[in-house]
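Query structure, 419 tokens:
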């Protein structure tokens, strides 16, 4: 015998209570599901989908637009029966006018006419999200649905924001570790000691602008007794510049063993740079080779600040060479400068443009002329004394201003032959 339904004979109040109980159970089930999804670290996209399906299937929302604030601006992550247009304009209207749950009507802005409700989510005074809903199925428990809609929207929006903040923290921690590793690598690349070579003194100053710099210097004492000193300024800053600097040093270490002539060596380095960077990065470069037996300096300046050379009363800028490295695949002409230093004491000051970019409180630069005057005044100091005084002069000149760029300075003093 077919069992008859008791619904027609059920007291209306009992029916209302049963409906309320069913709705509460549906809401509780979804709350448990969304909580489990959040704890299981469900992706942002899947959370959006889960939330939208609940609003549509269980709460009777047939039109939906979910606006969330991203680091790059407002984005519409999920829509139902709505084509998003001019999201930034829509977000601007919402952030200016809607701080609380609001019903929309005929007097609402034109962009909001397709919707019935605005559900904003704020963290303190900062808007995190706006949920726009419309075409809501009419039921007797509308008020209760609206309340739950607001509650669950806040839960989902805050969970997504927390996920975003957590991911950002993870990224920052990873970047911090990369930065620390790059700093350690760079410290290994920058020489802390210079070669013991009779009649030659070398001293350096290195001040990276932001813990990691793109300035590079090095030396190579060759088997035939000659000495190479080089200085470079890699375009850019931070980890990319440091990585390119490491590649540059590796190229130099192999090149100095292969190429005896500086023009061939510089040509090889330029070609290697272009192959690595595809001409997206450039390097200014200076290299000199000292032959102690002949008391001769040969050098190439590749678009770098001309080093200062002092010999007796003579002062000279070392500017012969070629264009910057890394811009074009083949350098048509590389001029190699030659200096016969004779028996007199000689001083070479190599530096990157971070030095001449220093400014005092009045906006004046520590320019090439100031450096030449300083070099002439302290030409009789040892290389170490010269750099100590130069560093003191730099600090005094800039005052409380920060260093504007990486600074690398190499001072080389070649003593008179009789010494």
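Result returned for the query:
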């Amino acid at each position: 015998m077919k069992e008859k339904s008791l619904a027609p004979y059920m007291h209306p109040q009992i029916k209302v209570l049963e409906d309320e109980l069913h709705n509460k159970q549906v809401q509780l089930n979804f709350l448990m599901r969304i909580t489990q999804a959040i704890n299981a670290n469900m992706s942002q996209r899947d959370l959006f989908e889960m939330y939208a399906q609940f609003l549509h299937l269980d709460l009777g929302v047939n039109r939906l637009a979910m606006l969330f604030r991203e680091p790059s601006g407002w984005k519409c992550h999920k829509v139902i029966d709505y084509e998003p247009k001019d999201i930034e304009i829509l977000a601007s209207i919402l952030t200016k006018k809607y701080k609380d749950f609001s019903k929309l009507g005929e007097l609402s802005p034109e962009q909001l006419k397709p919707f019935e409700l605005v559900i904003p989510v704020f963290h303190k005074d900062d808007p995190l999200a706006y949920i726009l809903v419309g075409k809501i199925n009419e039921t007797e428990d509308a008020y209760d649905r609206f309340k739950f809609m607001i509650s669950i929207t806040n839960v989902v929006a805050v969970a997504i924001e927390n996920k975003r903040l957590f991911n950002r923290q993870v990224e920052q921690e990873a970047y911090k570790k990369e930065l620390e590793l790059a700093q350690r690598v760079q410290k290994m690349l920058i020489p802390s000691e210079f070669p013991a070579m009779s009649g030659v003194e070398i001293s350096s100053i290195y001040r990276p602008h932001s813990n990691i710099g793109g300035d590079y210097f090095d030396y190579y004492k060759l088997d035939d007794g000659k000495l190479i000193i080089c200085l470079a300024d890699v375009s850019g800053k931070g980890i990319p510049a440091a990585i390119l600097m490491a590649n540059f040093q590796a190229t130099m270490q192999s090149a100095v063993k292969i190429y005896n002539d500086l023009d061939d060596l510089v040509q090889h380095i330029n070609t290697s740079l272009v192959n690595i960077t595809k001409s997206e990065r450039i390097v200014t470069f200076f290299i000199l080779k000292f032959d102690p037996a002949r008391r001769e300096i040969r050098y190439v300046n590749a678009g770098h600040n001309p080093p200062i050379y002092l010999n007796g009363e003579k002062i000279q800028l070392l500017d012969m060479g070629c264009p910057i490295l890394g811009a074009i695949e083949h350098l048509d002409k590389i001029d190699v400068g030659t200096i016969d230093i004779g028996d007199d004491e000689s001083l070479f000051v190599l530096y990157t443009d971070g030095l001449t970019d220093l400014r005092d409180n009045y906006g004046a630069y520590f320019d090439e002329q100031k450096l030449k005057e300083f070099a002439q005044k302290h030409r009789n100091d040892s290389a170490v004394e010269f750099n100590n005084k130069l560093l003191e002069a730099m600090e005094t000149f800039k005052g409380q201003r920060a260093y504007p760029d990486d600074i690398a300075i190499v001072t080389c003093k070649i003593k008179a032959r009789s010494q």
